[in-house]
Amino acid sequence: MAKDYYATLGVRRDASQEEIKKAYRRLARELHPDVNPDPATQERFKEITAAYEVLSDPQKRQMHDMGGDPFGGAGAGAGFGAGFPFSDIMDAFFGTASASRGPRSRARRGRNATIRVELDLAESGFGTTRELVVDTAILCEVCQGSGAAAGTHPDTCDMCHGRGEVSQVTRSFLGQVMTSRPCPQCGGFGSVIRHPCQECSGDGRVRTRRTIKVRIPAGVEDGTHIQLAGEGEVGPGGGPPGDLFLEIVERPHPTFERRGDDLHCTVSIPMTAAALGTSLTMETLDGPEQIDVRPGTQSGQVIPLYARGVQRLNESGRGDLLIHVNVETPLKLDPEQEELLRKLSQLRGEERPPGKFAPGQQGFFSRLKDAFNGR
């Protein structure tokens, strides 16, 4: 007499696949041999396993409903039956992600894209607007991302019957083990595009060149990345687009060196100008600026121009412009210039200056002597 697998699992004859799966998992947790080693319980576990194998397979379930033998006479008495649904038992005990099973969507998120944007110091310091040409993938307007030609649609895969996966029975120490893998015919999608769109060749997207206008904020610097959400490539199957990243490349400036929000530069002046004082006109990012060099300025001194640097990124205020002074000593003098300098040195009593040595400015032999003395 044919077995009633619906009664074995305790479900109605019109139960859905989800109801059948829940009933099997509930019973598997109660009757598994690792939980209950009683021989009668083990036999009961084999029965519910065989019932689930039949009712979870549309073809075997239909054969059972028609009164036929889904196992072709092999029965379910040997081992764990003709097919042991090992993955579902693991789901029952460990809660593995059953939602990942079944057909997967053709629509996937698009890739991110990165382009380099070269800026001058003034553009990166104060911000600018650029029009960028981007080669990217966009949604196919002919099929609207479905990948199928006009007037057609994807057909249900006749190998996996829309499930996106196929089962295979192998032998193991547990008996016969049923494993599932993505369907090789449809690639796990559960459907096959028999008539692909001629515009996108079934991908659901096409490549094109487009122009976008972007605003570069003030204060960016070399290496800064700006994220433009949703401006990347459209995904396969009409999936959501990725993001577009702008990598800032700051061109070197002929005068200024940028260090964070501050700008640095060096100005060279003759020793007479440093001694007597002078004024210079300098071209800054804000236009010409008058710089006063005080009398007695030494080489290496810094003249600050406050708030003449670049704008702080996402903050108010600006950095400073720091001017480093380099005092030049003349290399060649004509006789008249030499005579004037000698008179100046006599007036200042500097014909034979004693010199001033800063701490640690020892000669080579002094340092060598200290090393031998253990200092």
UniProtKB/TrEMBL annotation:
GO terms for molecular function: ATP binding; heat shock protein binding; unfolded protein binding; zinc ion binding. This is Chaperone protein DnaJ. Its cofactor is Zn(2+). NCBIfam families: PRK10767.1, PRK14278.1. The gene is dnaJ. Homodimer. The J domain is necessary and sufficient to stimulate DnaK ATPase activity. Zinc center 1 plays an important role in the autonomous, DnaK-independent chaperone activity of DnaJ. Zinc center 2 is essential for interaction with DnaK and for DnaJ activity. One of its GO terms (biological process) is DNA replication. Keywords: Chaperone, Cytoplasm, DNA replication, Metal-binding, Repeat, Stress response, Zinc, Zinc-finger. Residues 127-209 form the CR-type domain. Belongs to the DnaJ family.
